Amino acid sequence: MTSCCSLSHLLLAATRRLEAAGIPADEARAEARLLLQAALGLSREQMYLRPDADVDQAGAARFDSLVARRGRREPLAYITGTRAFYGLDFTVSPAVLIPRPETELLVEAALRHLEGVETPRIADVGTGSGCIAIALAAHLPRARAWASDISPEALEVARANAERHGVAGRVTLAEGDRLKPLAASAPFDTILSNPPYIGEREVDALMPEVRDWEPRVALTPGDDALAFYRHLANEAPPLLAAGGLLAVEVGQGQAEAVAALWTEADLKEVNILPDYAGIGRVVRGIAR
């Protein structure tokens, strides 16, 4: 098969294309490398050990197609079809929000709370890819999780991820809005959610990878950015076991307002957990 050019040549050219598309230089090179690995089926080690290896024309064409997609600001995770979260690889598609590192704080808060609970019962509201429920089920072998989403397409992705990580028998997926499809399975030891929390008028200011590609229903609840939290404050406490945890991810600047909703809902020990940048990112409270 006719060779085209070397790995290093393709990598340099792709990095420049991505920079020209508005992607920061350090991200552009890293992402070009990941796209090249995906196009050619190479490991990171193979890329480093043989930078001058020749690439055939078919491989170069596959790579060019992937770079063109990223140049249109399609998220890398949608192109490669996977994203790492809490030590596990999750299948993702445009039907689901791409898992973020900040959401791992929600998983950590739940794990701390569930220490000593023999058979934890977990609810995940707006599960998307299933990353929260599945990560917890994978780390807590005796746990059962119930996860809801309004999108049947998202639930298909979550189902594939549950099967991928061997927890499908302990993660029940239900289609419907918020806690409604999960209520019959209460009480829960913890109810978790990374809900839509961006106000409708703020969506246009988001990065194009988010604004133009991720599911809008997973980003915004409408004009009232706190709408989902207001519903949870009303619906979740009666479904928690005594001492159960209600914890949610929140947007920047929202933590105090959500904490006030938790207090008004008569939850105790309400507090705010910061993310790695010191921004209030998780609000938690305990049922009486």
From TrEMBL:
The UniProt record lists the EC number as: 2.1.1.297
Q: Give UniProt keywords alphabetically.
A: Methyltransferase, S-adenosyl-L-methionine, Transferase
Q: Name one GO molecular function term.
A: nucleic acid binding
Q: Write down the chemical reaction(s) this protein catalyses.
A: L-glutaminyl-[peptide chain release factor] + S-adenosyl-L-methionine = N(5)-methyl-L-glutaminyl-[peptide chain release factor] + S-adenosyl-L-homocysteine + H(+)
Q: One of this protein's GO BP terms? A: methylation
Q: Does the keyword Nucleus apply?
A: no
This protein's source sits in the domain of life called Bacteria
The UniProt record lists the Release factor glutamine methyltransferase N-terminal domain at: 10-81
Ligand binding (substrate): N194, P195, P196, Y197
Q: Which Gene3D superfamilies match?
A: DNA helicase RuvA subunit, C-terminal domain, Vaccinia Virus protein VP39
Per UniProt, residues of the Methyltransferase small domain are: 111-202
Quick one: which residues bind S-adenosyl-L-methionine? G126, T127, G128, S129, G130, D149, N194
A Pfam family annotated for this chain is MTS
| Class in the EC hierarchy, top level | transferase
Q: Return the similarity comment.
A: Belongs to the protein N5-glutamine methyltransferase family. PrmC subfamily.
Q: What does this protein do?
A: Methylates the class 1 translation termination release factors RF1/PrfA and RF2/PrfB on the glutamine residue of the universally conserved GGQ motif.
HAMAP family in the record: RF_methyltr_PrmC (MF_02126)
UniProt name for this protein: Release factor glutamine methyltransferase
Lineage of this protein's species? Bacteria, Bacillati, Armatimonadota, environmental samples
